[in-house]
Structures are given as structure tokens and as C-alpha cells.
Amino acid sequence: AEGEVSVELRSCDDQPYLPAVVGPVTVAAGATVDVGDTELVRATLVSGTVRDADGDPVADVCVQLADGTHVGGWDDTDADGTYAVPLADGGEYRAQFVDCRDTPELAATARTVTVVPGTDLDGIDVTMEAGAAATVTGIVTNVRGEPLAGVCVVAYLAYGRVRVASTDADGSYAIGSLGAGVWALAYFTCAQDDGPDVDPAVVDTGTGVAWAPLWWGGSRLELIGVEDPGPDPIEQGATLVELGPGASSAH
Hints:
Elements: E1 3-9, E2 20-27, E3 44-52, E4 61-66, E5 71-76, E6 82-87, E7 91-99, E8 106-107, E9 111-115, E10 126-130, E11 134-139, E12 151-157, E13 161-166, E14 172-178, E15 181-189, E16 202-203, E17 210-211, E18 214-215, E19 241-243, E20 248-250
Parallel strand pairs: 3-10, 11-20
Antiparallel strand pairs: 1-2, 3-6, 4-5, 4-7, 7-9, 8-10, 11-14, 12-13, 12-15, 15-18, 15-19, 16-17
């Protein structure tokens, strides 16, 4: 490769270090570029165990810590119910525990934790109670109130956990099997090429007009230049959707 590139450095042995990006640096074919020394900063870990009402560990629970400005970190519980969320910054975070299994059956009340940088916070254990899956429904239209078919509607947790539905001819959609918790809803075209530099505008087949991709609440969904694990809906101003166990919520 030639031109400007950025180099991301990550720990390869599961140690809790935050990734670091070096660059951009200019490279040429066949050349060796010394980017100098980089010191990785250790993350602050919030950890614990998630169990059900019988005391058994629960795997595949999405644990997410967020404040009012961004999603700070996330992890999924292992087979023994344990998790460890790495955080770059201290402060007060809302910790939520979402049943991310294919058929969610459990729910837990979110809790607030206070994180001091450099001081790991262990023992944030949670017991999940029985809680049926939730459903989100709605209708997608353009600014003239005309239904838009073939729009992808994504119920999104901010680290790649999603449920997707596409709108019918009347613009309606329904997304089920959602674990109780706070989600973001995103609306963009289903007919797009993969890649971080594609702006997934919705093209109205009736008029040819391209409508900007949006979060629910009206803020612009930005995917251009966004790398894994995807966009942060809080940073991008999405109006979040809180779903209780078994809820059916229209948006």
C-alpha cells in the first residue's frame, strides 16, 4: 500500500489495555517506516457476574456502560456469567444488562456505578429475573408523509448487537426478540455495498430523491469513516428507546 495510513495497536494477550492509534503516517511500496514507541494505557475494568433467579450463571448477556455523552465500554457474559467492561475514563455510568440471546427471557434493572480512573471496580453482580422479549413497531415515511418501502430499520446496541427488519410497501415494520433495556433505532437503505465509507441514504423509488439516514429522534446517522464496532448513537444524538420486559413500543 502507498499513501497515508493509520496504525492501530492493540494488546494481543487479552490484557486490559486501551487500543492506540498511530498516524497518519506516509508509506511507500517496499519501504519500512518507523512510527516510534507507543505506550499502551491500561483500561479501568468494571466486572462482575450475572446470574438468574436460581443462582445459575447466564451467558450472552450484553453489558454496556454509558454516560450522557457516549458509550464507554461493553462486554458479553461468558459461560460462567462473568464480564469485564474496559473503560478509558472515570465518572458516573449507567450499567445495563440486556439478554442478547436469540430468545430473550430475562431482564434486569440498570444500575449506576461510579468509576475512578485506574481503580478496577469488581463485584458488580446482577440477578436477572424472568422478563419476556420486547417488540418495536412503526411506519417510515418521507417528509411528505408517503410510505417508504425497503428501508432497513435496525434496533441497535452500540457494539454490533442488532436486530433488523425492512419496511413493507406501506412503510410498516416490526422488530421482535429484543431484550429489555435501552436501544437505539436507525433507519437507512437495505440496498448498499458493505464498507465504512458508504453513506446509506434511502432512495425513494417513486421520486428518485435520496433521504438522509437517521436515528430515531431525527439526528443524522453517520457511517462514513466509522470503524468497528460501529457508530455510537449517544455521541450522534440519537433519541434512545427504553423497552421494558414484554413491551410493545410504537415508533
